[in-house]
């Protein structure tokens, strides 16, 4: 397996979060504008979505070029952004792009559930190098994350269907990220109970 090359953490963070921040800033600036392209009117949200797709693809490609590795979650995210974002732009309908987080979280929830039914933690394959845990810990964390992703999918559906586009953009930009951060912060006792200390003795 090819080893991931290390790059400046600030560069990696800029590539991972930069497209999302640019989407948010561009939306705030263009949300009330209407653009006529090829005789068809597009509101600011659709135009920003059209710009976001290649920016995200380019940023993900840059991560791959610099580190030699991208994880499955990043690949799935790019694919779903291209598919649902592309449908929103092509059909001039923002609903498809708003459904994208629902599809992402439902997909990962279903994937983790499938692994659990087979007695496996697919989460372990993705995150084992970052936080070594006993098998029982991986299974418990996977169950919790499966339920968390399912809840996030439901939350996204409720937000985009019941509230304005602007509220959904704030939720997507800050709410989803904060929820993921809060989830892992609340798993401290699990990491303490099932964590495995790395042997740095060189023996």
UniProtKB/TrEMBL annotation:
InterPro entries xrefs: YciB
How does the protein associate with the membrane? Multi-pass membrane protein
Q: Which GO terms describe its cellular component?
A: plasma membrane
Name its cellular compartments.
Cell inner membrane
- Keyword annotations from UniProtKB, A to Z: Cell inner membrane, Cell membrane, Membrane, Transmembrane, Transmembrane helix
Major location category of this protein:
membrane
Q: Which Pfam families match?
A: IspA
State the source organism's domain of life: Bacteria
Transmembrane segments in this chain: where? 12-30, 42-66, 73-91, 103-123, 144-163, 169-191
- Report whether Manganese shows up as a keyword of the record: no
Q: What does this protein do?
A: Plays a role in cell envelope biogenesis, maintenance of cell envelope integrity and membrane homeostasis.
Q: Which family does it belong to?
A: Belongs to the YciB family.
This chain belongs to the protein called Inner membrane-spanning protein YciB
> Which organism was this protein described from?
Sulfitobacter mediterraneus
């Amino acid at each position: 397996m090819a080893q991931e090359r290390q790059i400046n953490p600030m560069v990696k963070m800029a590539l991972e979060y930069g497209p999302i921040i640019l989407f948010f800033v561009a939306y705030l600036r263009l949300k009330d504008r209407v653009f006529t392209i090829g005789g068809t009117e597009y509101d600011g949200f659709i135009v920003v979505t059209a710009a976001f797709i290649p920016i995200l693809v380019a940023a993900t490609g840059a991560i791959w070029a610099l580190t030699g590795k991208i994880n499955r979650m990043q690949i799935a995210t790019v694919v779903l952004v291209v598919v649902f974002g592309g449908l929103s732009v092509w059909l001039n309908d923002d609903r498809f792009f708003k459904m994208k987080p629902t599809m992402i979280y439902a997909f990962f929830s279903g994937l983790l559930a499938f692994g659990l039914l087979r007695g496996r933690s697919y989460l372990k394959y993705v995150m084992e190098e970052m936080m070594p845990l006993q098998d029982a810990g991986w299974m418990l964390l996977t169950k919790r994350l499966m339920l968390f992703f399912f809840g996030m999918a439901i939350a996204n559906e409720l937000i985009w269907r019941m509230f304005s586009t602007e509220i959904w953009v704030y939720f997507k930009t800050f709410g989803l990220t904060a929820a993921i951060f809060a989830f892992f912060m609340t798993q401290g006792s699990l990491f303490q109970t099932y964590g495995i200390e790395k042997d740095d003795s060189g023996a």
